[in-house]
Amino acid sequence: MKIVDFKEVKKVAESMKPVEWYNWVDNVLRKKDLFDMPPKIHMSQDNGNYYNIMPAMYNDENLVTLKMIGRHTLKENEKRSVMMGDIMLYEADTGILKAIMDAEYITTLRTGVVAAHSAIEFAKKDFDTLGLIGLGNIMTVFFKTFIDKLKDSNDSRKLIVKLYKHNQQEVRFAERFSNLENVEFTYCDSYEEVISNTDIVVSAVTRADKNFVKDNCFKKGVTVIPICTMGFQNCDLFFDKVFTDEIEQIRGFKYFDKFKSVANISDVLNMKKSGRKSNDERIIIYNYGLGIHDLYFAKKFYNLANVKDVDYNYPNSKYFI
Length: 321
Prior knowledge:
The protein is an alpha/beta fold. 30% of the residues lie in helices and 24% in strands.
């Protein structure tokens, strides 16, 4: 068995181009029907803490994964990520445990990359402005992947990127990407300033107790991607189209029955459903998170990791109590 921990996953990821992750995400969405993915289990705890349990199986690669991930506030003097998680990777036809892997870094990666994939797929063709709210690790992955995909497509358009000001995050974010010649960063004092007259709006805010802005702030043709699904409930009532990674996972949304149109992204990629049809359509994308993306990223990192086997003594003969 292998142990592929946070440091090893991070080391492998830092040697890769984000467009590779983009292609992993796209491949899984297009082949979604080949995977088995029961609904995720959510266990709530006090103070907003929780666990999500996410199983997935991929018979073509003889793999099963089980991810346990949760958010837990820090105890006094405790040093760790607020989000913690692990993935167990099994050989599907025997049940033998192949690896225990870090899930926090993998989850951050695939979440940001999925958002970038949605932005590329559903933005109007002539987009030139992005509005970004919540400039942490997930948004960093989103933007790295988004820019890398544009470069890979030889797209050199100029972009205005509007950053919501919060605790100097906007300054650090802009400095991180200061080498980009075709990108102009602007700092915004309000959500209205970020969202108004903006083509692509992405939010990675983990908590929101009300909608960010009123309806009239969303221009025609806008694409909204709430990575953590919060702050845009008013959009559900008047946007032209809703897309999602899995309809069954968002069926419990308050205004689900009032959506004008809803479809799975995989069906759009496989040309079973239509995507964006005009530059006037307002579109929102809810990616609630797929265990099959965790499985695929885990498989790739398992193959790329440079770690030694460790002994794990499972029962390999009949035994008696």
